[in-house]
Amino acid sequence: MALYKLRDFIPDYQEYFDHDDILKYDLYVGNDKVGSIDDLLVDDKGQFRYFLINTGIWLFGKKVLLPVGLARIDYIEHRVHADTLSKEQVENLPEYSEDMTVDFEHEEGVRKVYRSGRREKTPAGLGVGYGGADSAPSTPNTTPSVDLSAGYDGYDKDSYDYNLDRDLYDLSEQNHAKLLSSQERLRLRRQNR
Question: Name one GO cellular component term (predicted).
Fold first, then answer.
């Protein structure tokens, strides 16, 4: 599925955020500012998928993707919180560059890093949505022996569904109420065109 920068997908995006510019928010891990939000990637159905984050304070100038489900948004302080994000994950995430198209392989490389973080926090024997904890990649520093063009659970770019990684992509009323509302308005506009 194609992904688009929010600014390219809908130039008047601020209208859908009640004229609040979420793309100017700072990125925090705990109480520490670690970067900023550069953009928001949207799929062709209008679903928000990733924050494009600039981790310039942590790792000078590295831009990476943060799945929207891993973020908590503070509209009052103009912050996006990624409390489970670690510096090690950022180091292991594939870098995003302005001239690239985010394809299945890039997304799978991103998912691999975030899945690894979940495995480390999941007790042995408790599944994490991919056939159990043992099927997730072992550590963020391990180079996968799996061809990323075929997913970790036998899916590929044609059969992958974001529902396989709900905890990465689902928006909740608790952490994303305004984002959900903005996404729904955007999707309705898209459908009406």
Answer: plasma membrane light-harvesting complex
How far apart (Å, rounded) are the C-alpha atoms in residues 81 and 69? Answer: 11
CA distance 147 to 156: 10
- pLDDT tens track, the chain, 193 positions: 789 999 888 888 888 888 889 899 999 999 999 999 999 999 988 899 999 999 987 877 799 999 999 999 998 999 999 999 999 999 999 999 988 889 999 999 999 999 986 644 433 333 333 333 333 333 333 333 334 444 456 788 888 999 999 999 999 998 888 899 999 988 887 777 6
**What predicted TM-score, i.e. pTM, was given to this entire model?**
0.80
C-alpha distances in angstroms, 179 versus 8, 13, 151, 170? 18, 12, 29, 11
CATH topology of domain 3-192: Photosynthetic Reaction Center; Chain H, domain 2 (3.90.50)
Cβ burial of 183 (10 Å; 0-12, 13-18, 19+) is buried
Q: How far apart are CA 147 and CA 133, in angstroms?
A: 19
Tell which residue, 137, 138, 159, 134, has the closest CA to residue 149: 159
What token pair was written down for 186?
């955007």
- Domain positions in the chain are 3-192
